[in-house]
Amino acid sequence: MNTSIPYQQNPYNPRGSSNVIQCYRCGDTCKGEVVRVHNNHFHIRCFTCQVCGCGLAQSGFFFKNQEYICTQDYQQLYGTRCDSCRDFITGEVISALGRTYHPKCFVCSLCRKPFPIGDKVTFSGKECVCQTCSQSMTSSKPIKIRGPSRESSPPAPPCPQALPPGAPLSSLC
């Protein structure tokens, strides 16, 4: 983020040269108070956000794609939203599994406690889970395993011990 401070253009030119400073925005000659940003000069009234038109001379701004943009519009256009609270992120950011978070929002989705720095995080489908909760999620119950559907499976090879027609299955044992 940039800030600018208006300064008074010196009307006295000791060399007598005719260096005329023109406003970068409107092209008119700058007289009196001007703002200089990135070697461009502006009338204070001309130094405005390219999106909403608010004055930038007394506030913070961003410069992107050759445009001066106020903080609010910059966030709307280019800002990063927290994947938890959906507010814009300014300052520190945590990136995990292609998602971004405020440090205060990067918490275990089960116990809601923040993740200790350097600790492992378990991703369970859609959520991030701490090690303690991850261990409690593992179950000793048997898991039902489903095989591929019959439509997509090739036919099974014939059994080497074929049953004679009408014989009970117990005869294989």
Count of β-strands: 9
The CATH superfamily of the domain at 7-78 bears the name Cysteine Rich Protein
Which percent range fits the helix content? Answer: under 10%
The share of residues in extended strands comes to 15-25%
Indicate the structural class: mainly beta
Question: Which fold name corresponds to the CATH topology of the domain at 7-78?
Answer: Cysteine Rich Protein
Query: Terminal Cα separation, in Å?
Result: 79 Å
User: Strand order of the main beta sheet, please?
Assistant: 1-2-3
> How many distinct helices?
2
Assembly status: single chain
Any low-confidence stretches, pLDDT <50, length ≥5?
5-17, 139-153, 169-173
CATH architecture of the domain at 7-78: Ribbon
Tell me the series of helices and strands, N- to C-terminal: EEEEEHEEEEH
CATH class of the domain at 7-78: Mainly Beta
| Biggest β-sheet description | 3 strands, antiparallel
Shape: rod-shaped
Mean pLDDT over the full residue set: 76
GO biological process, one term: lamellipodium assembly
Organism: Rousettus aegyptiacus (Egyptian fruit bat)
Biased composition (Pro residues): 154-167
Domain LIM zinc-binding: 21-80, 81-140
